[in-house]
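Milestone 3.1: sequence recovery, worked example.
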């Protein structure tokens, strides 16, 4: 028998992307070939299903994994191969980047073929011996029960046992998944005593995180976080690894993980200090590697040993020896089982974790495979050790290969049983049915979870399955536990259930190829599997894989594009941070620019924002490593065609907020941008200036560049000040005839001269009389004349350019004064907070009200004001005919070719919801029978693109914004009119009525309401989000108050006596009903009541009842019909323009005002 590895197995490498390549080839003297393939990565299907990280959450991901599995099995069977012990543990799950990010990709492992197996009728099964090396492999992959039994009787030591548990939990040398062991001493004094006790013994019944942070802090965290948790990270996080092993970690890694500016003095200088401040467990190197203390950095000293370990040149080796002896001591052996319960055992979940203060925060991205230390291996308390000190020294990383081989040859002989091929393939198909069922049901088949596959390739497999331990006591998990085979099948979709039954219950299972080609898998899933497979087959370069992906995305669906983006983007991100040659950069730049444009055409906005856009920003934000003329990554990404695609895909608002600071930062000398790149940056800023409202351009671009010029104390030899002046000149050419002269003069003289002559920035209309030019109402105050309390002279030009995104952190200076007003309607038929809306890009206003002709007019206005005559709206939509429009809103997720908001929706009292383009073209309408009309309306893309309407009979209808059909419906108790609606980012719908009740519905769950609360004494007029947290709400009520709520604290059920449950604070100050509210990102609240406006901060006080003083708004009138404050009609609605630092208000008489 011969065991071949490395290049010797080239003939057995996989020709299919869903079959792992061979890593070991066993050949006997009779030319019987057995190919044993083991998982080569840290993840298997068993880990993904058992760890609960949701690698296969969602129907699409389950179908993709199932199809990939069927493709791999069918490929082997079609080539007269069998897989032997096919199980969830021999099914590999990998990602293109090799890490834990990306689309999970399934590959089958373990195949064999021989002339004897194909001769079904000759001799039946036969058995032959495996070599000594394979026997050693058996020992290294022993079953967890055998390892535990060996530790209990003293056959292996504490350290070796902990390392074995790390291996089973798929932990290795990777920083994000590093092997660890518990700290057992605090290093304050020499640990070993003659009686076997330890000095400075650590409490192994508590986690290191608990010992470091303290019970009081963990209890506070658990009470005040959502979801509740005690522990914020893994037992040994990537950050903890880098801090503990800082002396052996490359500086670039420290800068990436810990802090960009690596300061040696910030890292612990000695081991005692490291133990005190680090809440993580110990990297295994502190028990086995004396070099762990030696620094590779010139400015970072070696990690100091405890004073008792400083014995000379061999101090580090001496410390390792003593540290190991402490770990193998009797007192540690007697308590190690408690630490295992907290780390790999039953105390990692459920009530046991709560009692042990060991609840870990769920992973932020449940769509990715993970095999962290929280993989639970034991679901019952771990047994104690039966013996004390092991009478021999076993180091998991010590010893020579000859010693290991000698140990292996002393073990019992291992035999391989080779069955007939047809028998083995039938076993493969039955195993395929069990695995498909586990994928779709989320748990293994209850009748097979502890049964080893029969008649497999191995009588005792060198790849011994650990599924017995991974799925042990599965019934403790109520959501995924199934007491019977029938209940397990009922959890699956009908199509999947039929396939699983045909594979498992038939005397002759259907073939894998038949399953692969069945209707179980949609065309989208098939296309995704093909493209992902082709990407893995492109071994030439990253550019080749990008080109394969780009070709596959053309004409693809959102589902296919999402899988491709999730798979490819992590690999590209890892590649662009590494140094590469000019040729590689040119190939990457050209291929990636085409990929971005194609992906933006087919992928959804959410997928682009979550995957491609962060990668795009990352590629542009890093300084160039060299000066290169020609195709570079930055130059190609700054091409206007690429920028237009990105802007169209993510929307103008997100594009401006993120990309403008990136453009400006690239003007810094340290970015070393070439002349071509600077030219394209200038073109990009001009493009933004031409397509963005002027107030945003002035705040985000012009003000920043002026400040940079004023603070130019850098070396002018870099020419950065000339570049900034040239950019301002180019922008001015598109904003006004005299702007170029003003900008150049400002760059060398008084910086306020440009904005003091603001009218010169805008082309004046040739018309005379009362006609106004666009944006002529903007104030003429220079940003440099404002007293903002900040000394800008302390900043250099480069610092100003680098902090361009900090404009959002600047305080909002309020004058509470109208800059311009115009008559939007003759009056508001039904004054409400939903009579005014502003688009996310702050380009457009939306109003509805009465005109001289009818009550069903909805108007779209430019933010700059009417053009021509004062009554001239951009669009007047009259699709509601004689019905009265009750609510209207922009569909901010619907965009035109430039990324601007292009659609709106409105509803009326006749029961119609209509969606239409901002140009006035009708798109679709929906009629709700027996509704008696709609009263409220919301547009949301939280769980798909939807329009939500509230009826006068208390119903909440969710309509697909693209198809125009109702997909869900909820009913509020008591059948009262729905006066206000709100949709959180996680899909919770809040509805209110005129009696002050608020109801909550989960759009993903049943039709029952999840909470009901008496929120106010009178009706609720508006519900909005109070912050970036989806669970915090603000309500405006007719009882003259504003309420701050936490949805997590609102009890469930329908208790009519429940009042104010979940209210955090109440704000008072208005003397009339609060009609509308709006809140800024900083927590500043704007409310309108009568003719006054209330402005207060959510962060100013923590008192339950807070009072504020309402203010009057000056200048709310039109030139043709000025009104005094006493004659002014009441305000009905308010909306913020945060990027412009303006706000808009609508009166009951139809007057629309823009204020600052």
């Amino acid at each position: 028998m011969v065991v071949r590895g490395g290049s010797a197995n080239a003939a057995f490498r996989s020709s299919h992307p869903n079959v792992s390549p061979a890593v070991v080839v066993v050949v006997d003297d009779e030319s019987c070939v057995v190919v044993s393939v083991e998982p080569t990565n840290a993840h298997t299907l068993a880990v993904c299903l058992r760890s609960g990280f949701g690698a296969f959450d969602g129907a699409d991901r389950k179908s993709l994994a199932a199809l990939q599995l069927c493709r791999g099995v069918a490929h082997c069977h079609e080539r007269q191969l069998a897989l032997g012990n096919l199980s969830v543990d021999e099914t590999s799950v990998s990602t293109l980047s090799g890490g834990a990010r990306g689309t999970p990709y399934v590959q089958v492992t373990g195949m064999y073929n021989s002339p004897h197996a194909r001769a079904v009728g000759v001799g039946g099964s036969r058995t032959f011996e495996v070599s000594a090396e394979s026997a050693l492999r058996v020992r290294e992959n022993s079953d967890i029960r055998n390892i535990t039994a060996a530790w209990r009787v003293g056959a292996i030591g504490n350290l070796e046992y902990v390392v074995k548990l790390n291996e089973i939990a798929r932990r290795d040398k990777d920083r994000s998944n590093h092997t660890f062991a518990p700290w057992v001493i605090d290093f304050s004094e020499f640990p070993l005593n003659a009686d076997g006790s330890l000095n400075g013994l650590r409490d192994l019944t508590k986690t290191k995180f608990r010992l470091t942070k303290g019970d009081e802090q963990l209890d506070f965290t658990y009470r005040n976080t959502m979801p509740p948790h005690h522990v914020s990270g893994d037992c040994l996080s990537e950050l903890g690894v880098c801090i503990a092993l800082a002396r052996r970690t490359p500086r670039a890694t420290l800068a990436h993980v810990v802090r960009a500016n690596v300061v040696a003095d910030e890292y612990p200088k000695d081991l005692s200090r490291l133990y005190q401040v680090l809440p993580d467990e110990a990297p295994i190197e502190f028990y086995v590697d004396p070099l762990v203390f030696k620094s590779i950095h010139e400015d970072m000293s070696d990690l100091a040993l405890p004073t008792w370990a400083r014995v000379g040149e061999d101090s580090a080796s001496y410390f390792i020896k003593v540290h190991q002896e402490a770990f193998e001591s009797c007192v540690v052996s007697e308590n190690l089982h408690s630490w295992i319960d907290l780390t790999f055992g039953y105390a990692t979940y459920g009530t046991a974790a709560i009692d042990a203060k060991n609840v870990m925060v769920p992973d932020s991205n449940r769509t990715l495979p993970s095999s962290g230390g929280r993989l639970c291996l034991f679901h019952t308390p771990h047994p104690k050790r039966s013996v004390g000190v092991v009478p021999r020294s076993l180091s998991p990383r010590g010893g020579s290969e000859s010693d290991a081989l000698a140990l292996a040859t002393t073990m019992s002989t291992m035999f391989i049983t080779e069955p007939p091929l047809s028998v083995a393939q039938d076993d493969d198909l039955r195993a395929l049915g069990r695995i498909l069922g586990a994928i779709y049901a989320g748990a293994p088949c209850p009748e097979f979870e502890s049964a080893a596959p029969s008649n497999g390739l191995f009588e005792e497999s060198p790849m011994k399955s650990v599924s017995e331990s991974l799925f042990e006591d599965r019934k403790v998990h109520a959501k995924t536990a199934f007491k019977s085979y029938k209940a397990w099948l009922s959890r699956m979709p009908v199509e999947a259930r039929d396939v699983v039954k045909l594979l498992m219950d038939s005397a002759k299972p259907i073939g894998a190829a038949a399953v692969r080609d069945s209707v179980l898998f949609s065309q989208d899933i098939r296309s995704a599997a093909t493209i992902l497979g082709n990407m893995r087959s492109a071994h030439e370069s990253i550019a080749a894989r990008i080109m394969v992906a780009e070709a596959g995305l053309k004409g693809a669906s959102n589902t296919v594009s999402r899988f491709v983006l999730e798979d490819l983007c992590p690999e590209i991100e890892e590649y662009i941070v590494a140094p590469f040659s000019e040729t590689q950069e040119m190939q990457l730049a050209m291929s990636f620019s085409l990929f971005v444009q194609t992906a933006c055409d087919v992928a959804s906005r959410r997928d682009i924002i979550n995957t491609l856009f962060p990668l795009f920003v990352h590629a542009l934000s890093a300084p160039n490593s060299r000066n290169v003329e020609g195709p570079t990554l930055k130059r190609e990404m700054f091409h206007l065609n690429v920028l237009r695609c990105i802007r169209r895909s993510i929307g103008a608002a997100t594009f401006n907020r993120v990309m403008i600071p990136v453009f400006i930062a690239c003007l810094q000398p340290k970015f070393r941008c070439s002349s071509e790149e600077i030219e394209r940056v200038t073109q990009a800023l001009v493009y933004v200036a031409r397509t963005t409202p002027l107030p945003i351009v002035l705040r985000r671009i012009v003000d920043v560049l002026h400040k940079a010029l004023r603070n130019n104390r850098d070396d002018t030899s870099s020419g950065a000040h000339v570049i900034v002046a040239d950019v301002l000149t180019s922008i001015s050419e598109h904003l006004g005839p005299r702007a170029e002269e003003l900008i150049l003069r400002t760059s060398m003289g008084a910086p306020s001269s440009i904005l003091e002559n603001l009218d010169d920035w805008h082309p004046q209309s040739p018309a005379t009389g009362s006609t106004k030019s666009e944006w002529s109402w903007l104030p003429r105050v220079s940003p440099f004349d404002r007293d903002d309390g900040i000394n800008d002279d302390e900043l250099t030009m480069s610092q100003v350019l680098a902090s361009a995104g900090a404009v959002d952190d600047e305080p909002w200076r309020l004058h509470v004064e109208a800059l311009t007003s115009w008559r939007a309607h003759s009056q508001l038929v039904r004054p409400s907070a939903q009579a005014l809306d502003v688009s996310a890009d702050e380009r457009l206003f939306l109003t509805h009200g009465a005109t001289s002709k009818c009550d069903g007019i909805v108007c779209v206005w430019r933010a700059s004001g009417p053009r021509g005559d004062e009554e001239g709206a951009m669009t007047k939509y009259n699709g509601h005919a004689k019905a009265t429009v009750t609510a209207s809103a922009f569909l901010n997720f619907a965009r035109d070719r430039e990324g601007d908001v292009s659609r709106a929706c409105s509803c009326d009292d006749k029961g119609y919801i209509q969606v239409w383009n901002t140009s006035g073209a009708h798109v679709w309408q929906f009629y709700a029978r027996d509704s008696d009309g709609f009263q409220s309306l919301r547009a949301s893309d939280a769980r798909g693109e939807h329009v939500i309407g509230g009826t006068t009979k208390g119903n909440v209808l969710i309509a697909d914004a693209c198809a125009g059909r109702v997909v869900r419906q909820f009913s509020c108790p008591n059948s009262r009119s729905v006066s206000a609606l709100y949709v959180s980012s996680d899909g919770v719908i809040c509805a209110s009525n005129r009696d002050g009740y608020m109801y909550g519905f989960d759009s993903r769950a049943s039709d029952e309401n999840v909470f009901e609360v008496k929120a106010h004494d009178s009706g609720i007029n508006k519900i909005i989000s109070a912050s970036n947290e989806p669970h915090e709400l603000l309500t405006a009520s007719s009882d003259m108050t504003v309420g701050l709520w936490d949805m997590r604290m609102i009890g469930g059920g329908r208790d009519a006596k429940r009042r104010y449950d979940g209210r955090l604070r109440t704000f008072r100050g208005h003397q009339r009903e609060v009609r509308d509210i709006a809140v800024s990102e900083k927590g500043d609240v704007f409310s309108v009541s009568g003719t006054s406006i209330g402005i207060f901060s959510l962060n100013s006080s923590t008192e339950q009842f807070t009072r504020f003083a309402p203010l009057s708004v000056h200048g709310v009138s039109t030139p043709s019909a000025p009104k005094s404050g006493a004659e002014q009609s009441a305000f009905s609605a308010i909306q913020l323009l945060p990027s412009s630092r303006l706000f808009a208000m609508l009166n009951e008489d139809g007057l629309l005002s823009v204020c600052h």
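The radius of gyration is 34 Å. Residues 421-441 form the longest helix (21 residues).
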